[in-house]
Amino acid sequence: MRLTTRTNLAIRTLMFCAVNAHIVVRKSDIAAAYNASENHLGQVIRILGQHDLIATIRGRHGGLQLMRAPADINIGSVFRLFEADVPFAECFSPANTCPLVQACRLRNAIRDAVEAFYASLDKVRLSDLVECNDRLTALLHFPAAQVCTLPRRNSRLPSR
């Protein structure tokens, strides 16, 4: 099984936001951390926002933050969100042209394997991936002094 780039970026984006929950992160920072296209990342961020996983803040000091606690974000659900439209094999596609589909027993085995894959991911929360993960934190963490935070009333934003 191979994950789509969108699924990979979605999980990485959520991890980046969780590690940096103390700030509003910028799309450009996430793209730089993962050597990813900002355009592709923007599509992923839009979907995450539409499903209330992240909040996006527009404008000069904008960015994104998690909308839920990491313990409330189920990794299996995120995978389904991005992988649901991608059939695992031709026989699961509406455009299936395989002549064996009526007699093939492999299809049921594949379906069971995919269901087991998702059942395994359903046991994982975003918090399981990021909490007490010092190596991940060292790779992704931005100190609050280096980035813009949400503006408070009558206060100035820290400069970069």
Automatic annotation (TrEMBL):
Record Pfam families: Rrf2 (PF02082)
GO cellular component, one term: cytosol
Molecular-function annotations in GO: DNA binding; DNA-binding transcription factor activity
Source species, domain of life: Bacteria
InterPro entries documented for this protein: Tscrpt_reg_Rrf2, WH-like_DNA-bd_sf, WH_DNA-bd_sf
Keyword terms: DNA-binding
PANTHER family linked: HTH-TYPE TRANSCRIPTIONAL REPRESSOR NSRR (PTHR33221:SF4), WINGED HELIX-TURN-HELIX TRANSCRIPTIONAL REGULATOR, RRF2 FAMILY (PTHR33221)
Protein's recorded name: Rrf2 family transcriptional regulator
Native species: Rhizobium terricola
